Amino acid sequence: MDETIAEFIRRTILKIPMSEMMTVLEAWNFLSESQLQTLNLRQRKDSLAQSVVLLCEEKCASLSDAALLDIVCTQVHRHQKIWDVYQMSKGPGEDLDLFDIEQFKSSFKKILQRALRNVTVSFRDAEENAVWIRIAWGTQYTKPNQYKPTYVVYYSHTPYAFTSSSRLKSNIPLLGQALTVASKHHQIVKMDLRSRYLDSLKAIVFKQYNQNFEIHNPTAPLQERSVGLDINTDSRIIHENAVEKDKVQRITQETFGDYPQPRLEFAQYKFWKAAMLTTTPQTPTQSLQFHNRFLETKFKSDLNGGILADREEPLRCLIKFSSPHLLEALKSLAPAGIADAPLSPLLTCIPSRGMNYFKIRDK
Amino acid sequence: MHAVMMPQKTGKNYQAQNRPSQGSSSYQTNLSACEVKQKPSDSKENNPMQDDEHADDQDGDVLQIAMEYFEKDPIRSLRSKDKILEKHLITVENVAWKNGLAPETIDILLNVALSGRFGNAVNTRILKCLIPATLISEDSVVKAVSWLCVGKCSGSTKVLFYRWLIAMFDFIDHKEQINLLYGFFFASLQDDVLCPYVCHLLYLLTKKENVKPFRVRKLLDLQAKMGMQPHLQALLSVYKFFVPTLISVSLPVRKKIYFKNSENLWKTALLAVRQRNQGLCPEPRKLMLGPANIRPLKRKWNSHSIIPVLNSSSHTTECGKKEMNLSEYLSSSGSLPLEQLQRFPQLLENIHCLELPSQMGSVLNNSLLLHYINCIRDESVLLRLYHWLSQTLQEECVWYKVNNYENGKEFASFLDTIIRAESFLHEGFYSCEAFLYKSLPLWDGFCCRSQVLQLVSWIPFNNFSEMKPLLFDHLAHLFFTSTIYFKCSIIESLKELLQNWLLWLSKDIHVKPVTDSPLDTSLCESMNSVFKLVHYVGWLSTIGMRLESNSTFLMHFILDFFETACDIYLIYNLPLVVLFPRAIFYSALFTLDASILNQLCYIMHRYHKNLTAAKKNELIQKAKSKLSFSSKTYKEFNCCLTTMVGCLWTSKPFKKGIRFSPETLEKLGVEEHKRSLNLVYHSSLLGYAVSFLLQETPEEKTINLSSIQGKKWNLYLDYLFSEELQGLKLFIESCIRRSSVS
Amino acid sequence: MSVLRPLDKLPGLNTATVLLVGADDALLQRLADSMLKTDCASELRVHLARSLPLPSNVNRPRVDLLVFVINLHSKYSLQSVEKSLHHVDASFFLGKACFLATGAGRENLCSVHRNTIVRLARTYRSPVLFCDLEVEGSRAAMAQRLARMLQISAGHVPGVSAMSLLSLLRSSESPSLEDL
């Protein structure tokens, strides 16, 4: 076994937390049951890694085996990467072809190899018709760098692919090309949607997040909930706005549904405003407003000498919302009395429009 | 209310001090573990055979072997020793995190880590587990620094070593030798990577004599090169503290934190060590004159408690030569290490050559230094102290922070320390005053209540009208909306405030030379402020009584205040007599509680004395005196006195004022109203009268109160006096000519 | 949906009713719980409202004290109180209304400056109280103070009226904290 493969396996093992070691190794399915049993999990991680490498040497592990281990690792720690979403489309007149996964794999690999010569492409089939692809990039003249691979998750029969963000921007067009050709699509577009949570992204683009919503009658759980909220109150405490509160609850539920929200950690809004013009010179201050109901941003400046006065270039601003669980946070804004219900559609449209990067231009 | 709380506090402290003797089992284990480390030779005989101890013993043995390995390690090939090294390292790590390492062990390991014998990873692991059991010897550090000069260790190891040194600074037993290396450390500032850490170390190490012009120049050069770096600023600010004349650049005054505690890798371990050490020498917290309490450790920035501790403890070696002569000091260092200052005579001897600690906050816990600060009257020293205090108060104030319970307790004990220092000096700190002005408007009246109210009572004397919107209006706001207990506490702390002001004023007046016009305008103004304070409390009291429906409890506190207020002229020798409001007088007079009546009598007696004395004085110094007590005061007092005598003594109440027609009174069934307020029938004394009669004639079936007349009246009076109604006695003796009545 | 008036109904026997108005439900609820826990001679009723006007179809007792709760960490909370203020009869501000600002301590989180509240309260000639409702102890202390004020404004403390308390709480024009 090559020294570099051994080193690669060793480093990969070191990345895995002790508690997940066995699951990962079992999922890898390279070492036999009996070999796994010989491993002593109580020892220090680097000695454990050493013994795993020894076992692999016995079985003469290849680079593709090592790459598979890396994929399994990434599958377990998928939330450690930031995932981009790509949407592909068919050209006019192109019909549904019969899709063959093996054909997809081979043509995908072929395209990349033809272009770069040095590239390691590995596949691992996953649940729900998904295939995980790992690409370690090289160039015509250099060997593939195993330590900075790109991961792609492609769901067969769908136009969506998820890729881990990589620093090698130059390879992205090539990757897109390989994906479109291999999956027999015509065009590929990067969506304005990114998150750490691959499953949430999947739920958003496949519209799986509101499945419960379609089935259940929305008013029934609402009443249960509002009753549940006041269950502990003293009879001496009277909620005056119970009706209004119910209304807020209802609106919130209508917009967000009654199920757990897909998990996103940020949403970003970029505004462009054309150059400022002084409209009413007699007022002491001039103000410029974006009205999006919730995203209300005001710029105020003194008429003379303010930063916005005599501005030639367009005004830009960037608003970023971030939270460990953004959509749940937005959902609780109105019930918590922090914002009016309903919220701005700009905020609530994130799952339905499948984007969390917005560019808004002033008309 | 805080008067009630204080004893509890001290009680707790007392318990805390006693804890070692009660001895929880875990504590004992720790203690003996430390002993093991300190004298490994006889550890076996000392230890009682317990399971825990046994385990420790075994640990010790394994550690011994590991140390031998590290100490006498010949050059072996890397491969072969991998496993053995690993084993020994793990042993050391385990022991270090569990019990800490003995000074000798640390010495050996430091040597190993910095000699570059092993790779970086091993060095890092060793440095990370260098946790002292108690202390670190200075020699080890000096040796370690010498390894730095050899250049065998990598940059990252050097950085880690400096970080370790900073974190462990408190635990190094002496620092004189290390201080001699000041120049070496200073030269290391050149290294861009090391610079922040070296700055921090120098910040901890700098003494006055280390501050030299060339160093200042160097620092300023560095700052010009690297920009305003917080670590450089920190060092510069220390230099500026010591020698303000050398540094003319302005440093940001409001900068709070120069070094981040979060960078401390050994935080949790240090806490454990600290607890171990504190357990060994439990420190009494009371301030007292006499030997200052020296804690074995010095904490600076990475301190757990808010108040820093005085500089290093060299007392272990120095205590032998207690008698040090003056010339020795004059010739040698020029400054007496603070930790050697233990007794008042020492303070007196060395008062010329004391150098205050770089962290002024530490003086709060040291009574001798408080004396010193008080007597040198050095503006800059006070400024340093006030500066530190204001910053710390602002930073630590609980209601400025995300509140948590622990934090609250810590802040409360910090305030307690300040209050102790204030009452020790009998003087308020200006920074506390400013803090109160800033934070009282936001105070919820709950958090650290007793401390805040005590701080109020230590506010330095000031113009009342200026203070009113800043302080007294907010206090009134709280007063009117709070519970009766809170009202009582406010009145009580205002009483203490009045006492403090009066003391200060009376002292001040006698310091000033007596001029021809003794009553200059400033005195007039001062008296006016005091007058307004008393008036303000009178106003609070009147409304408070109304809000609390004439509560006796509150009345006690109010009368306590006026017991101080009525004696301003005689006790404090200040030309002022302010009467209490009529509302208070009447509700005290018509009370149901004999002790209130007794207190009222006492106050009336004192007012009487004061006014008489003032009148007499006025007659004597007629020409000089411009401050004549207004005749209104006399008139009002006389009116109160007449009413009181009329009610209690002559049974002719309210000669003037509202009168009811006899018919009305007949209808109400109180024709006998005239005597119903005298000493026999007064609602608070009725019980005394009855028991007096029962005592006189126990066999009598019916009690005839009206029989107390003439001779019996006198007997009754004696009975009342024998029942501890001293105030009443004084009042009757001074204000009533008894012979004329009986 | 109409203007809230202080004296349009007869008082209930020994009951005192407080109306807490503020956007943050959960905080109001906790404050209400603390108020009911206080030791108070009168029978307390606590009404909670996100905003005014109150729905008119409900029969409710006379409101003796109106407390506007403003969370300094949320501009929205101030705005909603400002809107609610339009639906209050002026006579409420003769001692039967006050402002409660919570969270002034944690300055780094404040999006509303406390002086804004002080000014607002001054405009309405009403007292303003500061506390931190998130903290158990502070909340309990505040609940006690509010219960005290409620008793007075409900007329349950003989000899003291809502108006007289108001005159006591109205401090002279104090200099702002920044001038210090």
UniProtKB/TrEMBL annotation, chain A:
Main location, first listed in the record: nucleus
UniProt keyword annotation of Nucleus present: yes
Annotated localization: Chromosome, Centromere; Nucleus
Domain of life (superkingdom): Eukaryota
Keyword field: Centromere, Chromosome, Nucleus
Name of one Pfam family that matches: CENP-N
GO biological process terms on file: CENP-A containing chromatin assembly; chromosome segregation
InterPro entries (alphabetical): CENP-NAC/CAD_complex, Chl4/mis15/CENP-N
Annotated Gene Ontology cellular component terms: inner kinetochore; nucleoplasm
The family this protein is said to belong to: Belongs to the CENP-N/CHL4 family.
Protein name: Centromere protein N
Organism this protein belongs to: Oryctolagus cuniculus
TrEMBL record, chain B:
Bias (Polar residues) ranges: 10-32
Cellular-component GO terms for this entry: inner kinetochore; nuclear body
Record's keyword terms, sorted: Centromere, Chromosome, Nucleus
Source domain of life: Eukaryota
Subcellular location: Chromosome, Centromere; Nucleus
Residue segments, region Disordered: 1-57
Single GO biological process annotation from the record: CENP-A containing chromatin assembly
Cytoplasm as UniProt keyword: no
Stretches with biased composition (Basic and acidic residues): 36-45
Record-stated family: Belongs to the CENP-I/CTF3 family.
PANTHER family, sorted: CENTROMERE PROTEIN I (PTHR48208:SF2)
Designated name of the protein: Centromere protein I
Gene name as annotated: CENPI
UniProtKB/TrEMBL annotation, chain C:
Cell compartment(s), UniProt: Chromosome, Centromere, Kinetochore; Cytoplasm; Nucleus
Highest taxon listed in the record's lineage: Eukaryota
One Pfam assignment: CENP-M
Coiled-coil stretches noted in the UniProt entry, renumbered to this chain: none
Alphabetical UniProt keywords: Centromere, Chromosome, Cytoplasm, Kinetochore, Nucleus
Endoplasmic reticulum as UniProt keyword: no
GO CC annotations, alphabetized: cytoplasm; kinetochore; nucleus
Subunit description: Component of the CENPA-NAC complex, at least composed of CENPA, CENPC, CENPH, CENPM, CENPN, CENPT and CENPU. The CENPA-NAC complex interacts with the CENPA-CAD complex, composed of CENPI, CENPK, CENPL, CENPO, CENPP, CENPQ, CENPR and CENPS.
Function, as annotated: Component of the CENPA-NAC (nucleosome-associated) complex, a complex that plays a central role in assembly of kinetochore proteins, mitotic progression and chromosome segregation. The CENPA-NAC complex recruits the CENPA-CAD (nucleosome distal) complex and may be involved in incorporation of newly synthesized CENPA into centromeres.
Name of the protein: Centromere protein M
Organism of origin: Oryctolagus cuniculus (Rabbit)
